[in-house]
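Here comes my example:
=====
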Amino acid sequence: MPIEQRLTNIPGNPVANRYSDAVVASGRVAYISGQIGLDADGNLVGPGDLRAQTEQSLRNMANILNELGATWSDVIKYTWFVLDVSQAAIIRDVRDSFLGDAPKPASSLVQVGGLVSPDLLIEVEAVVALP
């Protein structure tokens, strides 16, 4: 599957220094890197607050979708990495507020022992079928 485009430094998102925010393969599929609760200035949003970090992660993802010319309806798979899977209801609630009436994509929820920073509670990545 040939790589056609690598998107980096999406407006409104924290700077991606050592990775691409998204990679487009074969012109039809985009892989969005894990999004975390950092704002455009690289500041953590909602220390200790899973809801706030999930919302910021999805705002960052929305910026990438916009850059790709895609919408929430084009997301075909999420993978969520969380420190505490018992709080899945919070994640679902925030996800549903962003998705609205968009079809629910395939999804995996994985509890992990830690993320790239000890203050992070969640990371979410996605696969997108481009319009």
Q: What stands out?
A: Strands lie at 3-7, 22-25, 29-35, 75-82, 106-111, 122-129. The mean pLDDT is 92. Helices lie at 50-68, 88-99.
